[in-house]
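Thread: Newbie trying to understand structure tokens

Hi all, I'm a second-year student working on a class project, and my supervisor (Dr. K.) asked me to get a predicted structure for one chain before our next meeting. I've only ever worked with sequences, so writing a 3D structure as a token string is new to me. If someone could post the tokens and maybe explain what I'm looking at, I'd be very grateful. Here's the chain:
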Amino acid sequence: MIKLNKITIALAGVMFSGYLHAADANASGVVTFVPGETKVQNGEMVSYNGECFIAQNNPGVWETPNASSWFWTVAECSGEPGPGPEPEPNPDPEPEPEPEPEPGPNPNPDLGDVIPFIPGQTQVSNGDVVSYNDQCFIAKNNPGVWETPSASSWFWELTECSDEPGPGPGPNPDPEPTELSVLSPVAGQVVNANDVVAINASVDGELAAKVEFWANNQKLSVKVVNQNQTTYTQNWTPVEAGSATINVIVLDKNGQKLEQQSVSVTVKEEVTEDFTAPVVKFITPANGTTVNEKDTVSISVNATDVDNDLKKVVVKADNQQICTFDAATTDKFACDWQPTKTGDITLNAIATDAQNLTSSARVKITVEQDVVEPPVEPPVTPPGALCEEFNVYPDWTRGDHAGGGDIMVHNNIAYSAIYWTQSVPGSDASWALHLNCDGSEPGTAPLLSLQNPMDPIRLEVAGWPNTFVVASPSTTAPATLTIDTINSDALANVDKLTRAFVSIIKQAEQAGTASIIINSDVLDLATNDKGAALGTVSVKEALTSAVESTGSKIDLDAINALSNDVKGWAQAHNLIITTLAPEATFGWSLSIGEFAYDTHSGRQSVWDEASVFTADLLDSFELYKADAANKADFVVFTKSGTTEALNSEQWHNALEYVKQVTDYVKSPAMLANMPTAQTSGYFMGDAAGKPQLRKAAYSNVFAIMFDTDSSELTNKIDGYQNAKVPLYYVGEELEKGSLTSIEALNQQLAAAENAMDNEAFLYETPQSQWVPSTVYKWNDFLDGLNAMHNIGVAGNKFWLMNEGVDDETNIKYAKVAIAAFLAQSMQETIRYNACDENNWSEVKYGAPADYPMTASCGQLGQKYADYGVNPVSGLDHAYSCPRDNKMEVSALTHAKWYGAPAPVFAAPNAVLEERGLLVNGAVGRWTNNGHCNGGPNETVDTSKQVWEREDCKVYEGQKAGSFIWDGSSQESVEGCGWWGRGVIQTTGRQNFGTLNHYLGRSHVDPETIGKTIDGVTVEAPPANPLYAELDFCSNPGLICSSEENKEIKWIAGLFYWVTSVQAYNDEGGQYADWNYYNEIKKYVDSGLKGSQFIDDVSGIVNRGCPDLTCSTGDVHNVKERRENFKLVLQKLGLDPQ
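---
Reply by user tm_fold:
Sure, no problem. This is what the structure looks like when written as tokens:
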């Protein structure tokens, strides 16, 4: 049985996988071209049929090299491998020195001093012997630090390792004879041209060193023989029909042939040619579009065919042909159509190619009967004063498009069209930024824009607990008072308005400490035009009369400062309540509108249709202005019971709206008067799904108030009291500087700030300079250490000292513990100045393209979303965060070299598909080509995700590079928000989930507490978690973004340290006697001598065991970790030996 606060060693392997394998790629030379398999880049050399060719014009895997091909240039086969790409481009590369003459062969190389080869670090001279992957090699031809040793490399020669155990005493036995057999294909077998044929051979014999695979005198590959393996496989794709001979040759270590087997097969020519059906889709109208029966419907279709034999395109309305196009004469498939009937109509586009292969696409539209009343135009975000003269999208400057030089406004930003365009302003290269309509700096986020806050809204409201409140009329909850004020139909009547103010004054005087909900239809009706249609409202006259009649003490100057319109009317309520009910909290009520029923691709869609107008209204009316004396405390949202119930997807839209509005006005939300019959199942859980209270809390909701009682609801509310959702931490405040009970230690640690920030926490720039980190700071570390040492998580604390020991010794214990942790942190992330994982995926590391956008999903063949899934049962780990395909999140940090890849990101397919960015369901890659004119970028529009930003404005300091949406990633980035973050990279759903359960707002189903799932007994989360306001499952980016809790990027690593290093336990195993506390004491008591302690700790962090070599491999960068450890100890005033 595994207890959860004893996190297993495997956690370390997961959290560091992004760093452990970066050096595993082999160096490459001239590539043997295998049709259907070999992918190359322009400029790379391949060999084929005994000749060499250089790639050009991006050849595909089936573009067979030949002298007449457009994709290849004949070249001489020098036998020398081409230079391998460096791990990262250098903006100012130094010229390579001329290679030294190759020395003569050394007949007797000295194998007594074998050097361990570490890719990217080990520099050797010709004749040096290195060890790598349990084999030894002799250097030749001046290998570089990235030329990884292999038996087939031009730079290395395989040799015996001198330190391998020799034979025992007595004569050596004769070696067993080498046995070779070709398992497949068999002699006489018929294979198809252009089909992949697997050549399988069995090799057995201790003299065997290498096995070569040949086909028709062309060497396919050379494989090193492993004495623990007998079967070897090589794929071969024949391209020419006829007889073919396959040869398999076994060689000894000196290259002498031991055995050879041949098999003859017959290659059968392909008799048919495959053709692909065309692809067709509607551009306009969109599915679900509603039009008037007198409208002319613009139909536009996109149709393509990979075989370039598209013949015709036909569009039908309810099976009646309405448009036809000859694809031989046009590639624009657009027409206008006048509906002839009302109701639902299905439009069907059919594309046919020359082979009579067809495909079709359908959209359903609704044709409404013409009415006398003019149609209500959808609201358009009003531009700022600077843009009043410009057209606002979709009001095109030229009917249905914009021409070069035309200026249009979208999302309160003015863009200038570079040439003829019909794309959304600012969405592609046909537009250039003109200005921000609100006067904010061009290139930055406009004031009225979708928020991506660095920290969540604090959900603290006076009189309410620090846990999420769920209540019905009969259950206990903080007092609320609903004030039903005047509705819009009576606003123009001064007498009714006066009586309404009198009623509000009297209720406010009796409110006490209750939370007041102001209820009226005025704000809902004023949303689209900020109340302009409601005209003049006699606010001053009515409120003055109400004050006189009630004798209330509301300042007359404050009344006279109000405006006689809807804004003044709303502000009058704020003035009355803050004056007469100073101990009460209050908020305005808004309805969740019809937008929730619509289909939305993602966050921006909800903002554009609904949130922007509500946010603009509340901001313009200054009802939640941060520095206003009459500021409201929370926003109330209601759902009418007379409208149709929302399903789960529609509630997602509604809660996204709630979050966006409250993020903008920086105030928490209450869901009030919620119809029990429609909403209790969704929020409290039912047969259709689990409770969604945590989702509501993530949407800034602190309470839900249902409108009626039911026995079922009451039972659910009672059950909820046993596992409440925390909203924010309430507990002991940590005093800065009071880390420990030893004041001398506290002062020494505080005094180390300058040395640590400027001499220890350094990162390497692209110019190979070491400068202070901008991400990791000493004081943030001390704040995190304070929390983890004095409060901890679920009883687990960062150990610094031992009771019963004198202060001098405890000071040493504390500094050694700190230095051991920081030695690992400096190696893993601080040296890169990275909080988020960088995109370093390349083809040579197994990626489908260099710097694919899918690096966020996992690098080196990993799938971060799958971390925590039991490979046998298929079940998620008990603490794994749930998968989230709607997550839209971007990294904050990234590599900084010239043209470095953009920060990684995740986005739903629907969002990218809506923008037309997916190619066959896949995203693309980053190219570091393309210089950015105007120097390094200095501004970033933070309202946009990384992928939405303009070219050359993707990140600060960008000098080159851009996204290419060509499908080369072969996958999408949906649900890919689990990349590594923090000082010791927290990666994958299980690791974020474990952190969230113990430190943040737990996502674990309360029904699983105390149960055992896949061998893990689920513990209850802390009742008052240290970071209850942070939900790392809903937004894992909080580890890096939080400004309120900068120490969290440290705490994520400290939490790992406490649960995996301090608690390391190999009971019954090889390291059963190793104990962290004993080892740290031993190191201090020995006078800080040797490297055993830091080596053991490095082994646990980097490889999972307290040793320099574990079953998972050797510890990476041992020397650097030792040096880091020694440096920190010295900066903290100790003298390690």
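A couple of things are worth pointing out once you decode it. The chain has a mean pLDDT of 88. The longest strand covers residues 257-268. Feel free to ask follow-ups in this thread.
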